[in-house]
Amino acid sequence: xxxxxxxxxxxxxxxxxxxxTLISLVSLAGCKFAGVDYEPPQxxxxxxxxxxxxxxxxxxxxxDKWWERFEDETLDALIDTAIDENRSLAIAxxxxxxxxxxxxxxxxGLFPKIGGTGGFSRxxxxxxxxxxxxxxxxxxxxFYSVGTVLTWELDVLGGVRRSIESADASLQATExxxxxxxxxxxxxxxxxxxxxxxxxxxxxxxxxxxxxQKGSLKLANDRFDAGLVPRxxxxxxxxxxxxxxxxLPQLRQQRIATLNRLSIxxxxxxxxxxxxxxxxxxxxxxxxxxxIETPADVLRARPDVRAAERQLAAQTARIGVxxxxxxxxxxxxxxxxxxxxxxxxVFETGSRAYGFGPAFxxxxxxxxxxxxxxxxxxxxxREAYLAYENTVLEAVQEVETSMSAIANExxxxxxxxxxxxxxxxxxxxxxxxxxxxxxxxxxxxDAERTATRVEDNYAVSQGLIAKAYVSLYSALGGGFxxxxxxxxxxx
Length: 491
Hints:
Blueprint: H1 7-29, H2 73-85, H3 87-107, E1 113-124, H4 130-134, E2 140-154, H5 159-225, H6 232-266, H7 270-277, H8 295-301, H9 303-323, E3 329-340, E4 352-361, H10 367-435, H11 441-475, H12 482-489
Antiparallel strand pairs: 1-2, 2-3, 3-4
Helix pairs in contact: 2-5, 3-5, 5-6, 5-9, 5-11, 6-7, 6-11, 9-10, 10-11
């Protein structure tokens, strides 16, 4: 439809006047934004680790996809499944989506808001009120209208831009939290799998000891039947066998509980997880690690430390958002309406009505409230800074503890392994001497109990070393490749 008046001229005339007003307001405010400019925190860190791992390899420890160092295909498959199916990781991703949308909402505050209006009304004047009464009154009129309304709040003092700055940092913190959750998820999957492997090894050893003790019971029976030993030897052998057999259900129950915990991490059920695990394997163990980077390198790698720093940045920007309320807010308002009594006249030149001009609003009488809100945001910023420092301390402590656990458990494993080998040989020698009548049955019982305990400790120690490596890789911020994370965040 060809309109009878120049809409472009009207719009651009109003826009040019608005731009002039905008320039005038900005010149009044200068370049100072509300709030304070953020500066990354500086923390004092040790130059080297207090605990160290003696390494037989040169170079630095690689932490991306660290689970591949265990050279266990089952572990690789479990971690891939967890990343694809874990519900909590999916929830963490949805939080990233929400943070992105929140950033878009904050950014929209820089731009004008334009809305459309329209309507129809039919009105009748009273016959008995004011001028309507003297003029006869009772007139009925119809009104048709269509138009647009523009509102543009000018970010003269940077309150909106501080809000965008906060939203940007919050988004980055949420992405780092997603990374951190993936690190924790992968490490929990690995720990649960290693627990299952350790329990299976312990079950295997308990069954072997059960068979050995059945042999001792038979030996005692044979010697009793020959009249060489009292019945006490038989009852002692039965007690020892029953005690070891009673240990097996406990181990099996622990395995079932661990399997169920792993199934939740994988987003499935125990039967499916059982199929993924398959047959019993030895406890996987990574090769001895290389040198660990400095504490400062860990801070750059750990997602939780980076998330804490971004949260501090977001909170710092909120001071400016609150401080902007101390000052007046300026806006450009405008409306363009076509109003007529007849629908056919709406788009006539004479139907146009418009208004345009600057406006401001200023909270003059609640300064105490605004000041208190600023003080709250400043307190929250100090709190965020302390939380960041605490996260740094915890990060260094976790690495130190993990390295210490590996070193000390290795030393323990050497002793436990030697003890297990000696205990196994002792059982053989004592049973042989008992069969010859050289020792009583109490020596056999003591030797078998010691062998059962020490061999179980050997399996437990192996599992602890493997899990200590998992804790170290997790403490170093490993567990994902940057490429895979960026791919996931671009869904």
